[in-house]
Amino acid sequence: MKRILIIEDEKSIAELERDYLEIEGFEVEIITDGKKGLDAALSKPYCLILLDVMLPKVNGFEICKQIRKEKDIPILMVTAKMEDVDKIRGLGLGADDYIVKPFSPSELVARVKAHLARYDRLVRKNVAAYDEVQVRGLHINRTSRHVFINGKEIGLTAKEFDLLLFFAEHPNQVFSKEHLFQRIWGLDSFGDLATVTVHVRKIREKIETNPATPQFIETVWGAGYRFKG
């Protein structure tokens, strides 16, 4: 369940916001004090913050700036004065949106849902970008452990995948067979360094157009192997 923090000193408004959001399935916490609200925002996991501008002890502008230094979650500022809208726009506070009192509860809910959906899309995009290593026509997905070369999926054993991924994550660096064996097979593994040579050969046969003249994993004579980024 998504958790929303409401920092609002007008209890009736805060409770109205909470009631409509809870109807939509959100878990909501209300804090009426600016300093306590800031502490909660920085220390607890929330998906979105509804932040009133005028608050006791610490105002909404300062709270927004402090939250944005630490967290990248949607912040919707709530104000009773149109003059504050220009401040929200112009101060570079990091707020994602604003809503002016009085507002309809349905508009509030729609704004909240829209910003949560947008944030989720950005997070998924960033995760997907992290999950994939792309080098020219080679695509390696860390999570699914799928490998594609020029759009065609190829099958790798577990150790072949681990070795290829390690190479791709460390482009243009030379690694000795000893280092690769310890890194992929482990310090306590039994075997010999020929294991590395065999696995490199098999990977080349699967991803290289011509394994004799590799475009990805090249041999550095007397030193080891290097992945060309």
TrEMBL record:
GO biological process terms on file: regulation of DNA-templated transcription
GO MF terms held by the record: phosphorelay response regulator activity; transcription cis-regulatory region binding
Ranges where the Response regulatory domain occurs: 3-116
Keyword field: DNA-binding, Phosphoprotein, Transcription, Transcription regulation, Two-component regulatory system
4-aspartylphosphate sites (modified residues): 52
GO cellular component terms, semicolon-separated: cytosol; protein-DNA complex
Subcellular localization(s) per the UniProt record: Cytoplasm
InterPro entries xrefs: CheY-like_superfamily (IPR011006), OmpR/PhoB-type_DNA-bd (IPR001867), Sig_transdc_resp-reg_C-effctor (IPR016032), Sig_transdc_resp-reg_receiver (IPR001789), WalR-like (IPR039420), WH-like_DNA-bd_sf (IPR036388)
Domain OmpR/PhoB-type: 130-229
DNA-binding region coordinates: 130-229
PANTHER family per UniProt: REGULATOR OF RPOS, STAGE 0 SPORULATION PROTEIN A HOMOLOG
Record-given protein name: DNA-binding response OmpR family regulator
Organism of origin: Neobacillus bataviensis
